[in-house]
Amino acid sequence: MAQCAAAAATSGDVNGDGKTKRKVAIITGITGQDGSYLAEFLLAKGMRRVILVFCNVLTVTRLNTEIDLGNAAHDDITIPYPTVQCVWQISFDLAEYTADVDGVGTLRLLDAVKTCGLTDTVRFYQASTSELYGKVQEIPQKETTPFYPRSPYGAAKLYAYWIVVNFREAYNLFAVNGILFNHESPRRGSNFVTRKISRSVAKIHLGQLQCFSLGNLDSKRDWGHAKDYVEAMWLMLQQEEPIDFVIATGEVHSVREFVEKAFKHVGKTIVWEGKNEEEVGRCQETGEIHVKVDPKYYRPTEVDFLQGDSSKALKIIGWKPRVTFEELVKEMVDADIELMRNNPNA
Ligand code: GDP
């Protein structure tokens, strides 16, 4: 569950021709993968200035880093990774903190735009999420599917979703919800199952680890690549009208499949033996057990199936995913092999 997914606001700057050209972006949640990809994406699009904000335990959003991008190289984007661990630990434990950052935090930003008299110039992107669908009411999930969040995070994001709609309707603010399904990358936090798997497989491949444990192997997700998804964020902000979109691949894979593909990439075939908590994943070639099930990773209110339908996005903003599931798994495993080879404790 992404706790501090990026929300972006871009402010207008009037050109000589009277048209508004956006030159400044504020991105919250830059310690997460989306914030960093979005900053790089905007840089490449010629955005002159990106202000990076990360969510802080003490002061919900605190301006931490301001980078004048100019012609700066991408390396100049500083992402303080150590902070991630701290924020994650705390926010997983504290539902109230989640509500404060992911729910009321959005209201604070919208209020700031309004209070500063910027409703005509700012464009606001809300990092909405497929977690809103939780206990799914329809398959696949699209913009009109009723929400049914199943976690404090989902409930907080539900509030954020509606407060964005409210500001759009009440104050005519260009504010949009991007309902993004799971999107991964080598920058994904290691608490997420995809990165946990890619890291563990990399370690096993390098002989640094023998076995790791997972929870629900049969949970299914619609996994895309974060790079494709930040492009959707940008496209949503370039439209004439503010419209909410589902962003997804439409393809569903299980945790089990992710495990199999990741191992296959390093030349290991995983065969499953046993049932439920006794289930193990064994390497067919060596006979070694590499995967176990540990009930401590089960969730009290599991979201076991998410599949998005982003045909509206394809039709209206021309967005579709480029990276396939297979390519995503390979990229993540390769990146972790590289990382672990140089730094086994990473
Ligand atoms: P989420 O969709 O935002 O909750 O993304 P996650 O990557 O955290 O979880 C995706 C699915 O993987 C969920 O249904 C989890 O229950 C399942 N899962 C199975 N084992 C694990 C595990 O060890 N860690 C995590 N994070 N998820 C796991």
UniProtKB/TrEMBL annotation:
Keyword annotations of the record: Lyase
Chain ranges of the NAD(P)-binding domain: 26-56, 90-332
A Pfam family this chain is assigned to: GDP_Man_Dehyd
GO process terms (BP): 'de novo' GDP-L-fucose biosynthetic process
Cofactor dependency: NADP(+)
Protein's pathway: Nucleotide-sugar biosynthesis; GDP-L-fucose biosynthesis via de novo pathway; GDP-L-fucose from GDP-alpha-D-mannose: step 1/2
Molecular function terms, GO-annotated: GDP-mannose 4,6-dehydratase activity
InterPro entries named in the record: GDP_Man_deHydtase (IPR006368), NAD(P)-bd_dom (IPR016040)
Domain of life per record: Eukaryota
PANTHER family xref list: GDP-MANNOSE 4,6 DEHYDRATASE, GDP-MANNOSE 4,6-DEHYDRATASE
Class of the enzyme per the UniProt entry, highest EC level: lyase
Keyword Cell membrane part of the UniProt annotation: no
Protein name (database record): GDP-mannose 4,6-dehydratase
Family affiliation: Belongs to the NAD(P)-dependent epimerase/dehydratase family. GDP-mannose 4,6-dehydratase subfamily.
EC annotation from Swiss-Prot or TrEMBL: 4.2.1.47
